[in-house]
Amino acid sequence: MPSGTYARKRLWRWQSNPLRRRDDVVEAWIVLAVWVVFVVGGAVAGLVTAHAADEVFARQRAERQPVRAVVVNDVPRGDVAIGGVSDRRSATVRWTAADGSAHDGRTQVKSGLRAGSRVTVWQDGHGRLTTAPPSSTQAAFESGFLGLGAAAGLAGLVFGAGAAARWRLDRRRVDEWGREWDQVGPRWGHKTS
């Protein structure tokens, strides 16, 4: 089939045609609107989400500081887990904050450490233990992933709304055809034999 014929068939709702119904034109506009919102809205949603996530990760890297801490109690060896031995355990650590105050808290450390072992832990701006902030590479990957997720979520909503609108138009066309057949059908009801 020549490519021009295919393109004309795909755009038939936009061409003047005595068989074209108002619902066909409405459906063409719905399809166009869905694709425009998908392309433009998906790009905007993805970029805004990725930028917001990147700002959060940058703020975490700025606020969280590593501090040296001492393990208070012996940390038992890791438990056997599916796929191997767990190398992290929860333990109590003691550290001195920047203001000179001593703090105790629980965090994840390597299993098998002895009391008095030195470890590096992360604290937030209020002196509470927290997880290490993501590196710039990890943050870029996560920001991109979240942006793609936002774009995909918007795409699902937009295509779902478009499909629902087109389904409603199809139901209306079927009902209209039924009403028209009720008017014309009895005239065609004679027997041929």
Automatic annotation (TrEMBL):
Alphabetic keyword roster: Membrane, Transmembrane, Transmembrane helix
Membrane-spanning ranges: 29-53, 145-165
InterPro entries attached to this UniProt entry: MT1774/Rv1733c-like (IPR039708)
Protein name, entry field: Uncharacterized protein
